[in-house]
Specification:
six-stranded mixed sheet; Rossmann fold; alpha/beta; four-stranded antiparallel sheet
């Protein structure tokens, strides 16, 4: 339960006002419920004409005990019976009973209503915390996690927390209040009977606790199967073209069927255990009622009865009312472990460490004036091979530096270190002599614009995608950027122009159009440093020509770092860096490297063929 209280402290604390309101209303509901049951005693006495007790009025005084208050109430009832008759008083008592029950249910409804903002608020806060954490984590975290698994945690696991934990908060506030107040009244009515009842409580709690521990283990495994299912759905949607091309529908169907069958089997176990909560608590409660009936009956039938028959019936009514809160607590005991299992999976994301740390006292970075320098930079992925080794490189302002090499040589990793998508494992990178770890990440990335091989676009309008990098961009600024990128004409051909939605990842556009929208986005941001990651590699010859023209306009007057496979696109670079197995093996202009006759010449000749 320690983990559960930590969750409440983390997420329920901002809503403590609602909790206080619920506590007050639940206390009132319990008090009025006790009053309604107390009215049963004079009603039963009138109905069965069994009261031969003579009540004496006790003067009202401060701190008057409950039994003296009850005595005076029964005194007034006896006086009214003598004055107005039994039938008239019975009608009055029934009307009072209805009024008290009406107030009780109103308090009960109010207590439930004020808990709704807590449930909805906690779920919203939890989803926002996960989303913000996802945005803050480095790219390396997501290379080790499946996208479908992360989606499952922010959807299914959060939903389970809502169902299993936040829905139990109301029960955990209401039921202890009811149980404490009812037990107090029961002790006042007959401490012997109540003490006898309490003996059975540890047995019930022990059975529920054991089953709850088993349920948590099963729930954790069930949520893992849910993640596997979501991961496979995500993979299927992303690879549908290949699945159809290789006629692998049956294979994927069998694979998905295996995962869903495992999830069905585990969910069945969880559901059966959870379904046992009500029958188990029902049986234990009924057994307790039967035993109390026997024990109470012996007290009434004995020579020295400690409780009369009407009081015993009222006692049993209150005792039966205490059974439901105990049942609800048992449901919470079954439900909370499921939510805790989901919360543990969510905490894998929330408690993930971010190696990209902000400097405590960041140095100002308000522009780019001289150069970017790599000084003895090395990098390896956690638990992986060495990707870069001892890189020394200077990128002067206004120059175009091209990086070439075979796949896996470390080109993309090298440029990803500049905006601090990853941290070097050795060495340092400086901008104008300042270590990039000593400046704010936001200031650093504000200097840079990216155009990637696979344009990353959003399910938004063309205007929204182009203006993505500049908040508050005007229509004129967006159109100007689109004209430079060669995108304005095809945008106007769309029925809704710049307000056209381009679908998921820009699926409604061609490859060349997507890339030009990506270039327009970078143009609008107007960054002093431009990173091109094989920006034309996936395009056909005609599209490549138009995109290359747009890129040349974008590169004009900027410091450009271009990764390229097609050497023809970087022939005019000021310097070409040749990477091989994470090391710089050659560097120079296009002509110098051809004359050198080394690794670059080999790549050039292979592409010429």
């Amino acid at each position: 339960m320690k983990a559960f209280w930590k969750i409440l402290k983390r997420y329920v604390a901002p809503y403590r006002g609602y909790v206080g309101g619920s506590v007050v209303l639940n206390i009132l509901s319990a008090i009025f419920n006790v009053f309604s049951f107390s009215l049963l005693i004079p009603i039963l006495q009138i109905l069965f004409n069994i009261s031969d007790v003579h009540y004496e009025f006790i003067p009202w005084h401060k701190g008057m005990p409950f039994n003296e208050i009850s005595n005076n109430a029964y005194y007034y009832v006896a006086q009214y019976i003598a004055q107005y008759g039994q039938s008239h008083v019975l009608l009055m008592l029934c009307l009072v009973f209805i009024a008290i029950v009406l107030v009780k249910v109103a308090c009960y409804f109010g207590a439930a209503a004020v808990m709704v903002p807590i449930r909805t608020g906690v779920v919203k806060d939890l989803r926002m915390e996960i989303y913000r954490k996802i945005l803050s984590l480095p790219l390396g975290f997501f290379s080790q996690e499946r996208k479908g698994d992360i989606i499952a945690r922010i959807s299914g696991d959060v939903q389970e927390v809502e169902t299993s934990i936040t829905s139990t908060i109301e029960m955990l506030i209401k039921n202890p209040i009811l149980i404490v107040i009812y037990l107090f009244v029961l002790f006042r009515m007959s401490w012997q009977l109540t003490l006898f009842v309490i003996i059975f409580a540890p047995l019930m709690i022990g059975i529920i606790s054991f089953t709850g521990r088993k349920l948590k283990a099963d729930s954790a495994e069930a949520q893992k199967y849910w993640s596997d299912t979501m991961s496979q759905v995500e993979e299927t949607l992303g690879g549908l073209r290949i699945i159809k091309a290789f006629r692998a529908e049956k294979r994927m169907d069998a694979r998905f069927g295996g995962v869903t069958e495992d999830m069905r089997r585990k969910n069945t176990q969880v559901a059966v255990r959870q379904a046992s909560a009500h029958p188990v608590s029902e049986f234990l409660g009924s057994a307790m009622i039967a035993i109390v009936l026997w024990f109470g009956g012996t007290l009434i039938l004995g020579e020295k009865a400690v409780i009369d028959a009407p009081s015993f019936m009222a006692y049993m009514a209150i005792l039966y009312s205490i059974i439901q809160p105990i049942k609800d607590l048992s449901k919470a005991a079954y439900g909370i472990p499921k939510g805790l299992a989901s919360m543990e999976r969510i905490d894998v994301i929330l408690q993930a460490e971010n190696p990209i740390r902000e400097a405590e006292h960041p140095s100002p970075l308000d522009g780019f004036r001289e150069s970017i320098r790599f000084e003895g930079v090395s990098f390896r992925y956690e638990g992986g091979r060495q990707v870069l080794s001892n890189i020394d490189l200077e990128i002067p302002k206004g120059k175009t530096i091209a990086i070439v090499g075979a796949s896996g040589a470390g080109k993309s990793t090298l440029v990803d270190l500049i905006p601090r998508f990853f941290e070097p494992t050795a060495g340092r990178i400086t901008i104008d002599g300042t270590d990039i770890r000593d400046v704010r990440v936001s200031d650093l990335r504000a200097l840079m614009g990216n155009v990637n091989q696979d344009p990353i676009l959003f399910n938004d309008t063309l205007f929204g995608n182009i203006s993505f990098g500049k908040q508050g961009a005007t229509r004129e600024e967006v159109e100007a950027a689109a004209r430079i990128a060669g995108a304005h004409d095809f945008i106007l051909e769309k029925e809704e122009g710049y307000d056209t939605n381009i679908g998921d990842r820009g699926v409604k556009l061609s490859g060349g159009q997507r890339q030009r929208i990506s270039i327009a986005r970078a143009i609008l941001k107007n960054p002093p440093i431009l990173i091109l990651d094989e920006a034309t590699a996936s395009l056909d010859t005609e599209s490549e020509r138009s995109v290359q023209e747009a890129l040349e306009k974008l590169m004009a007057g900027r410091t450009t770092i271009a990764i390229a496979h097609r050497l023809s696109t970087i022939k005019h670079a000021d310097e070409i860096i040749v990477l091989h197995e994470g090391r710089i093996v050659e560097r120079g202009t296009h002509e110098e490297l051809l004359t050198l006759g080394g690794y670059y010449r080999k790549l050039h000749d292979m592409q010429a063929l």
